[in-house]
Structures are given as C-alpha cells and as structure tokens.
Amino acid sequence: MIGKGSDELSARAVFHAEVTRQRELSGWTLAELSDRTRYDASYLQRLEKGDRLGSVDAAGALDRVYGTGDLLKDLWRLAKREVQANRYQGFLDLEAEAGSIQQFSVSVVPGLLQTPGYAETQLRTDRPATEELLAEQLSLRLSRQERLTGPRPLDYRVLLDESVIRRPTLDPDIWTEQLEHLIDAAARPNISLHVVPFRVGLHNLLGGSLTLLWLPSGRTMAYVESSFSGQLVEEAEEVGQLRLSYDRLRDLALPPGESLNVLRTALEEHTSCLPPDRTSAVPSGVSPRTAMQTGVTA
C-alpha cells in the first residue's frame, strides 16, 4: 500500500514502492541484489527508501534481474517527469514571492519580458499536444509579468546574451514588437537591462540560463535551466558560486544606457529590412508599433 490516501500518491512513490516489492517477491537480500545488478547495496537501499530516484540504467538493471520487462524503467521515466514538473512549479512559487530577481538568458528573451506573440512562437516550438494546453501555458507565462508592473513592482536585473537580440522570429512583425517591448522595459525604473556582447567571449554561464531569487526571509535561491530541464539550487555554497559567476558576467556586460542603444540599433536595422509599405509612412525615429498606436504618419 502506498501512502495513506490517494492525495499522497505520486509516480515517484509508486516507483520506490515497486522497487521494494520486487525485491521482497524475489526473497533476495540487498547484498544478493547488489551481486546480480552490480550496483552498491547502499545505493539500492536508497532507491527503496525513496531517498534518491537513481538513474534509468539502474531501473533497467532491476528490470532485467526481476524479469519485469520495462516496468521499472517506465515508472522511473514517469517519476522523473514528475520531479522536473515539481521543480518548475517550485521555481514559479519562489518567483512570485521574491522581492528581487537577477537573471541571465543565453538564447531567448526571458519569460518576464516576452510579448504575447514571441511567447506563443516559443511555446509552439515544443509542439504542445493541444491548442487548449498552449493557451494555458501562454496565459501562465504572461500572468507572471504582472510582477514587473504591479503596485509593488519587482526589482529586476537581466543580462541578455547578444545572441538573444540577434535571433529574430520568422514573423518580422512579432520581432519588431518584441524589440520595442525590450526597449520599453529597459526604460522602467525597476528594471536594469544589460546586453552581454559577443566580444566578452567564453564564460561559465554559457551552458544555460540562470535566475537568482532574493526572498523576504533573507535567503537567496537559484534556478538553473537548459532547453529540457531545470533545477532549483538551495545549497548556500552552490548559490554563492552562481552569484559570483553572475556578478563577474555583469561586470563584463554593457551598462544599461549602452545596452539600450544596442536594442535601438537592432530595431532600426530590423525595420530597415521590412517591405516599404510597412515603414514608408512612419517618420524617422518612430517605430511601426508606436505609429499604429498613436496614429502618427508622415
């Protein structure tokens, strides 16, 4: 029996319970199982107790010795997916609580600064199962942005790798709007936006994106994210190392004023390549979106 009720049931709990059940059915001790799988007995014991999830290879080894096909491997994959989802939810909870956030993005505009069009375009790259799921994901992402504009706006510092503003969307109008939105955001008093130029060269945050969250309790947490996974970092020493890496990169980044000029130049270069019917009626120095909103024409 797993837990005391259905509310406590989880894929991870099912996996650990089944690992334990299969050994009990076999009648083997942990030492005997270790001999058959070549995994250390203490490692196998932690799998049974739920102290660790282990690897898919370990689950596969257990399947082989128990003759359970792919049962334990399949349960492991479900548990792994659940753990990753819970980590992201944990990050969202901390983001909603944080009074200050510092972030580095290596490849895409961060969710807090995405326009609806850009956000939808990015979410579609993951091929959501249904339009309803896409709509839910989009609504969640955009709702997070209220932290930047509410009555007590979040203090937000963001470092954007230059590749972020050199990778346009296929729809030029969406990219125009996104660049304009970044320019607008950079002018807000609670937002400090820095561009990390290519000339900085290699640095140790290039492997993914980093978010540092300052909580009301005084703690600082970190969230490290790649294209396919994310991990909350709570250990003070590890968070300290990530903060140091972030501070060093911030020192190499362009200051906000220069970064704003880079964004404006990127917008000018982009709009200069648009068909004449999209830009000819807009006076110099006025973006297409601003022209549509204000009714400005030549």
Tell me what the structure shows.
This protein has 298 residues and is an alpha/beta fold. The chain folds into two domains: 6-82, Orthogonal Bundle (434 Repressor (Amino-terminal Domain)), CATH 1.10.260; 98-294, Endonuclease, Chain A, CATH 3.30.870. The protein contains 13 helices and six strands. It has helices spanning 11-26, 30-37, 41-49, 56-66, 71-97, 116-124, 131-144, 162-166, 172-186, 236-252, 256-272, 276-279, 288-294; strands at residues 100-105, 155-161, 191-196, 209-214, 220-225, 230-233. It has a six-stranded mixed beta sheet, sandwiched between helices. β5 and β6 form a beta hairpin. α2 crosses α3 and α9 packs antiparallel against α11 (256-272). Pfam families: DUF5753 (PF19054), HTH_31 (PF13560). Residues 274-298 are annotated as: Disordered.
The count of β-strands is 6
CATH C-level name of the largest domain: Alpha Beta
Mean pLDDT: 87
Rg from Cα: 24 Å
Order of helices and strands: HHHHHEHHEHHEEEEHHHH
CATH architecture of the largest domain: 2-Layer Sandwich
Instruction: Give the biggest beta sheet.
Output: 6 strands, mixed
Secondary structure tally, helices = 13
**Spans where pLDDT lies below 50 across 5 or more residues:** 1-7, 280-298
Indicate the CATH topology of the largest domain: Endonuclease, Chain A
Structural class: alpha/beta
Which range does the strand content fall in? 5-15%
CA-based shape:
elongated
Count of distinct structural domains = 2
State the end-to-end CA separation: 74 Å
InterPro entries: Cro/C1-type_HTH, DUF5753, Lambda_DNA-bd_dom_sf
Region (Disordered): 274-298
Domain HTH cro/C1-type: 19-72
Protein name: Helix-turn-helix transcriptional regulator
